[in-house]
Amino acid sequence: xxxxxxxxxxxxxxxxxxxxxxxxxxxxxxxxxxxxxxxxxxxxxxxxxxxxxxxxxxxxxxxxxxxxxxxxxxxxxxxxxxxxxxxxxxxxxxxxxxxxxxxxxxxxxxxxxxxxxxxxxxxxxxxxxxxxxxxxxxxxxxxxxxxxxxxxxxxxxxxxxxxxxxxxxxxxxxxxxxxxxxxxxxxxxxxxxxxxxxxxxxxxxxxxxxxxxxxxxxxxxxxxxxxxxxxxxxxxxxxxxxxxxxxxxxxxxxxxxxxxxxxxxxxxxxxxxxxxxxxxxx
Length: 282
Fold this sequence. Notes:
Layout: E1 12-16, H1 32-43, E2 55-65, E3 68-71, H2 100-112, E4 117-120, H3 127-136, E5 144-150, H4 155-165, E6 173-179, H5 193-208, H6 212-220, H7 228-231, H8 239-248, E7 253-261, E8 264-271
Parallel strand pairs: 1-6, 2-5, 2-6, 3-4
Antiparallel strand pairs: 1-8, 7-8
Protein backbone atom coordinates (compact mmCIF):
# COMPACT_ATOMS: atom_id res chain seq x y z
CA UNK A 1 0.00 0.00 0.00
CA UNK A 2 1.62 3.24 -1.13
CA UNK A 3 0.17 5.65 1.37
CA UNK A 4 1.22 8.77 -0.52
CA UNK A 5 -0.96 7.80 -3.49
CA UNK A 6 -4.00 10.04 -3.86
CA UNK A 7 -7.45 8.47 -3.76
CA UNK A 8 -10.99 9.73 -3.59
CA UNK A 9 -11.46 11.37 -0.20
CA UNK A 10 -12.93 8.88 2.24
CA UNK A 11 -15.72 9.70 4.66
CA UNK A 12 -15.34 9.23 8.40
CA UNK A 13 -17.75 7.10 10.42
CA UNK A 14 -18.88 6.67 13.99
CA UNK A 15 -20.81 3.43 14.41
CA UNK A 16 -22.61 1.77 17.33
CA UNK A 17 -21.14 -1.72 17.68
CA UNK A 18 -23.75 -3.24 20.01
CA UNK A 19 -22.93 -5.67 22.81
CA UNK A 20 -20.43 -8.51 22.68
CA UNK A 21 -20.65 -10.89 19.70
CA UNK A 22 -24.37 -10.17 19.24
CA UNK A 23 -24.80 -10.73 15.48
CA UNK A 24 -23.26 -14.19 15.59
CA UNK A 25 -24.88 -15.76 18.68
CA UNK A 26 -28.27 -15.62 20.38
CA UNK A 27 -28.10 -12.18 21.94
CA UNK A 28 -29.76 -10.68 25.02
CA UNK A 29 -28.91 -7.18 23.78
CA UNK A 30 -32.11 -6.26 21.99
CA UNK A 31 -35.13 -7.47 20.07
CA UNK A 32 -34.78 -9.20 16.72
CA UNK A 33 -36.13 -6.06 15.00
CA UNK A 34 -33.61 -3.82 16.75
CA UNK A 35 -30.69 -6.14 16.06
CA UNK A 36 -31.67 -6.63 12.43
CA UNK A 37 -31.76 -2.86 11.89
CA UNK A 38 -28.35 -2.39 13.47
CA UNK A 39 -26.86 -5.28 11.50
CA UNK A 40 -28.18 -3.78 8.26
CA UNK A 41 -26.59 -0.46 9.13
CA UNK A 42 -23.22 -2.03 9.87
CA UNK A 43 -23.29 -4.04 6.62
CA UNK A 44 -23.75 -0.72 4.82
CA UNK A 45 -20.32 0.46 6.00
CA UNK A 46 -18.95 -1.18 2.88
CA UNK A 47 -21.04 1.14 0.68
CA UNK A 48 -20.44 4.57 2.24
CA UNK A 49 -17.93 5.53 -0.45
CA UNK A 50 -18.14 5.03 -4.21
CA UNK A 51 -14.50 3.93 -4.10
CA UNK A 52 -13.58 0.90 -2.06
CA UNK A 53 -11.29 1.82 0.83
CA UNK A 54 -7.68 0.75 0.47
CA UNK A 55 -7.47 0.22 4.22
CA UNK A 56 -9.43 0.76 7.44
CA UNK A 57 -8.25 2.58 10.55
CA UNK A 58 -10.50 1.80 13.50
CA UNK A 59 -10.64 3.43 16.92
CA UNK A 60 -12.58 1.22 19.31
CA UNK A 61 -13.94 1.98 22.77
CA UNK A 62 -12.24 -1.18 24.02
CA UNK A 63 -8.57 -0.20 23.88
CA UNK A 64 -6.89 2.46 25.99
CA UNK A 65 -3.17 3.11 26.38
CA UNK A 66 -1.04 5.81 28.04
CA UNK A 67 -0.21 7.16 24.57
CA UNK A 68 -1.88 6.62 21.20
CA UNK A 69 -0.88 3.10 20.24
CA UNK A 70 -1.32 1.47 16.86
CA UNK A 71 -1.43 -2.23 16.01
CA UNK A 72 1.52 -3.04 13.77
CA UNK A 73 1.04 -6.75 13.10
CA UNK A 74 0.71 -7.92 9.52
CA UNK A 75 -1.71 -10.63 10.64
CA UNK A 76 -3.58 -9.60 13.81
CA UNK A 77 -5.49 -12.25 15.76
CA UNK A 78 -8.90 -11.69 17.32
CA UNK A 79 -9.19 -10.64 20.95
CA UNK A 80 -12.30 -12.16 22.50
CA UNK A 81 -12.74 -9.46 25.13
CA UNK A 82 -16.16 -10.59 26.35
CA UNK A 83 -17.36 -13.35 28.63
CA UNK A 84 -20.36 -15.50 29.37
CA UNK A 85 -21.27 -16.40 25.79
CA UNK A 86 -21.60 -19.83 24.13
CA UNK A 87 -18.39 -21.56 22.95
CA UNK A 88 -19.10 -20.56 19.35
CA UNK A 89 -18.54 -16.91 20.34
CA UNK A 90 -14.88 -17.77 20.97
CA UNK A 91 -14.45 -19.58 17.67
CA UNK A 92 -15.33 -16.66 15.39
CA UNK A 93 -12.89 -15.75 12.65
CA UNK A 94 -12.21 -12.55 10.75
CA UNK A 95 -8.76 -12.91 9.20
CA UNK A 96 -8.24 -9.37 7.88
CA UNK A 97 -4.61 -8.53 7.32
CA UNK A 98 -2.95 -5.71 9.19
CA UNK A 99 -0.89 -3.07 7.45
CA UNK A 100 2.48 -2.18 8.99
CA UNK A 101 2.95 0.61 6.43
CA UNK A 102 -0.30 2.25 7.53
CA UNK A 103 0.67 1.80 11.18
CA UNK A 104 3.93 3.60 10.45
CA UNK A 105 2.10 6.36 8.60
CA UNK A 106 -0.27 6.84 11.55
CA UNK A 107 2.67 7.24 13.92
CA UNK A 108 4.34 9.68 11.55
CA UNK A 109 1.24 11.87 11.41
CA UNK A 110 0.85 11.78 15.17
CA UNK A 111 4.49 12.71 15.73
CA UNK A 112 4.23 15.60 13.25
CA UNK A 113 1.32 16.95 15.29
CA UNK A 114 2.98 16.68 18.67
CA UNK A 115 1.50 13.38 19.87
CA UNK A 116 3.53 10.71 21.60
CA UNK A 117 2.76 7.31 20.12
CA UNK A 118 3.64 3.66 20.33
CA UNK A 119 2.90 0.43 18.50
CA UNK A 120 1.83 -3.04 19.55
CA UNK A 121 2.81 -5.95 17.29
CA UNK A 122 0.87 -8.55 19.31
CA UNK A 123 -2.59 -7.20 20.18
CA UNK A 124 -5.61 -8.55 18.32
CA UNK A 125 -8.77 -6.89 17.03
CA UNK A 126 -11.23 -6.48 19.90
CA UNK A 127 -14.96 -6.94 19.45
CA UNK A 128 -15.46 -3.22 18.80
CA UNK A 129 -13.54 -3.85 15.58
CA UNK A 130 -14.22 -7.37 14.38
CA UNK A 131 -17.94 -7.50 15.20
CA UNK A 132 -19.05 -4.57 13.01
CA UNK A 133 -16.43 -5.24 10.34
CA UNK A 134 -17.25 -8.93 10.07
CA UNK A 135 -20.71 -7.72 9.03
CA UNK A 136 -19.43 -4.99 6.70
CA UNK A 137 -16.54 -6.91 5.12
CA UNK A 138 -17.31 -10.60 5.65
CA UNK A 139 -14.49 -11.65 3.32
CA UNK A 140 -11.98 -9.78 5.52
CA UNK A 141 -10.38 -8.45 2.35
CA UNK A 142 -9.57 -4.88 3.40
CA UNK A 143 -6.36 -4.36 5.42
CA UNK A 144 -7.24 -3.08 8.88
CA UNK A 145 -5.30 -1.29 11.61
CA UNK A 146 -6.60 -0.46 15.08
CA UNK A 147 -5.61 2.63 17.06
CA UNK A 148 -6.09 3.00 20.81
CA UNK A 149 -7.73 5.71 22.81
CA UNK A 150 -5.49 7.67 25.17
CA UNK A 151 -5.99 7.16 28.89
CA UNK A 152 -7.58 10.09 30.61
CA UNK A 153 -10.17 10.22 27.82
CA UNK A 154 -9.77 13.95 27.24
CA UNK A 155 -12.29 14.92 24.52
CA UNK A 156 -10.19 17.86 23.26
CA UNK A 157 -7.14 15.64 22.92
CA UNK A 158 -9.10 13.05 20.93
CA UNK A 159 -10.54 15.67 18.59
CA UNK A 160 -7.00 16.91 17.95
CA UNK A 161 -5.79 13.34 17.49
CA UNK A 162 -8.44 12.81 14.83
CA UNK A 163 -7.44 16.03 13.10
CA UNK A 164 -3.85 14.76 12.91
CA UNK A 165 -5.09 11.68 11.05
CA UNK A 166 -7.22 13.57 8.53
CA UNK A 167 -4.66 13.29 5.66
CA UNK A 168 -5.30 9.54 5.58
CA UNK A 169 -8.71 10.25 4.08
CA UNK A 170 -7.01 11.40 0.87
CA UNK A 171 -4.97 8.20 0.84
CA UNK A 172 -7.91 5.82 0.62
CA UNK A 173 -8.17 5.08 4.34
CA UNK A 174 -11.64 4.82 5.86
CA UNK A 175 -11.49 6.01 9.48
CA UNK A 176 -14.08 4.38 11.73
CA UNK A 177 -14.87 5.23 15.34
CA UNK A 178 -16.60 2.31 17.05
CA UNK A 179 -18.54 2.86 20.27
CA UNK A 180 -22.08 3.43 21.54
CA UNK A 181 -24.03 6.63 22.04
CA UNK A 182 -25.59 5.20 25.22
CA UNK A 183 -23.41 3.02 27.44
CA UNK A 184 -24.64 2.56 30.97
CA UNK A 185 -24.70 -1.20 31.44
CA UNK A 186 -26.40 -0.92 34.84
CA UNK A 187 -29.34 0.91 33.30
CA UNK A 188 -29.96 -1.11 30.13
CA UNK A 189 -32.98 -3.02 31.37
CA UNK A 190 -34.73 -0.15 33.15
CA UNK A 191 -37.65 1.63 31.43
CA UNK A 192 -36.59 4.73 33.38
CA UNK A 193 -33.51 4.88 31.16
CA UNK A 194 -35.54 5.56 28.03
CA UNK A 195 -36.09 9.30 28.56
CA UNK A 196 -32.44 9.59 29.60
CA UNK A 197 -31.27 7.99 26.36
CA UNK A 198 -33.74 10.02 24.30
CA UNK A 199 -32.63 13.34 25.78
CA UNK A 200 -28.93 12.63 25.55
CA UNK A 201 -29.17 11.26 22.02
CA UNK A 202 -31.18 14.28 20.84
CA UNK A 203 -28.48 16.58 22.23
CA UNK A 204 -25.75 14.47 20.65
CA UNK A 205 -27.41 14.47 17.22
CA UNK A 206 -27.58 18.26 17.29
CA UNK A 207 -23.96 18.53 18.45
CA UNK A 208 -22.48 15.96 16.06
CA UNK A 209 -24.20 17.38 12.99
CA UNK A 210 -23.37 21.04 13.70
CA UNK A 211 -20.76 23.04 11.82
CA UNK A 212 -17.19 22.35 12.89
CA UNK A 213 -16.73 25.11 15.45
CA UNK A 214 -19.99 24.49 17.27
CA UNK A 215 -19.63 20.72 16.92
CA UNK A 216 -16.17 20.55 18.44
CA UNK A 217 -17.04 22.97 21.24
CA UNK A 218 -20.11 20.97 22.22
CA UNK A 219 -18.31 17.63 22.02
CA UNK A 220 -15.49 18.99 24.16
CA UNK A 221 -18.11 19.96 26.76
CA UNK A 222 -20.28 16.88 26.38
CA UNK A 223 -20.65 16.47 30.16
CA UNK A 224 -22.94 19.52 30.09
CA UNK A 225 -25.46 17.62 27.96
CA UNK A 226 -28.75 16.44 29.49
CA UNK A 227 -28.18 13.27 31.55
CA UNK A 228 -24.59 13.05 30.28
CA UNK A 229 -23.22 10.96 33.13
CA UNK A 230 -26.30 8.76 33.24
CA UNK A 231 -25.80 7.96 29.56
CA UNK A 232 -22.04 7.53 29.97
CA UNK A 233 -20.83 6.90 33.53
CA UNK A 234 -17.47 6.45 31.81
CA UNK A 235 -16.96 7.98 28.37
CA UNK A 236 -14.83 5.43 26.53
CA UNK A 237 -17.71 4.55 24.19
CA UNK A 238 -18.21 8.20 23.26
CA UNK A 239 -14.55 9.10 22.65
CA UNK A 240 -14.32 7.38 19.22
CA UNK A 241 -16.85 10.00 18.07
CA UNK A 242 -14.42 12.72 19.09
CA UNK A 243 -11.68 11.14 16.96
CA UNK A 244 -14.08 10.87 14.02
CA UNK A 245 -15.14 14.51 14.40
CA UNK A 246 -11.52 15.64 14.44
CA UNK A 247 -10.71 13.68 11.30
CA UNK A 248 -13.80 15.11 9.60
CA UNK A 249 -12.49 18.68 9.73
CA UNK A 250 -14.96 21.00 8.01
CA UNK A 251 -17.08 18.10 6.72
CA UNK A 252 -20.41 17.99 8.50
CA UNK A 253 -22.01 14.83 9.76
CA UNK A 254 -25.28 13.31 8.78
CA UNK A 255 -27.16 10.96 11.03
CA UNK A 256 -26.44 7.56 9.51
CA UNK A 257 -28.35 5.46 12.01
CA UNK A 258 -31.33 6.16 14.27
CA UNK A 259 -32.57 3.21 16.22
CA UNK A 260 -32.88 1.59 19.60
CA UNK A 261 -31.18 -1.20 21.50
CA UNK A 262 -33.08 -2.73 24.39
CA UNK A 263 -35.54 0.10 23.85
CA UNK A 264 -32.89 2.80 24.37
CA UNK A 265 -32.12 5.35 21.68
CA UNK A 266 -28.77 5.05 19.88
CA UNK A 267 -27.34 6.71 16.78
CA UNK A 268 -24.44 6.66 14.34
CA UNK A 269 -22.87 9.32 12.12
CA UNK A 270 -21.18 9.69 8.74
CA UNK A 271 -19.00 12.71 8.06
CA UNK A 272 -18.34 13.85 4.52
CA UNK A 273 -20.51 11.29 2.79
CA UNK A 274 -24.15 10.68 2.03
CA UNK A 275 -25.36 8.67 4.98
CA UNK A 276 -27.09 5.33 4.44
CA UNK A 277 -30.83 5.68 4.54
CA UNK A 278 -31.94 6.29 8.11
CA UNK A 279 -33.53 3.36 9.89
CA UNK A 280 -37.20 3.88 10.75
CA UNK A 281 -37.93 4.55 14.40
CA UNK A 282 -39.47 1.77 16.42
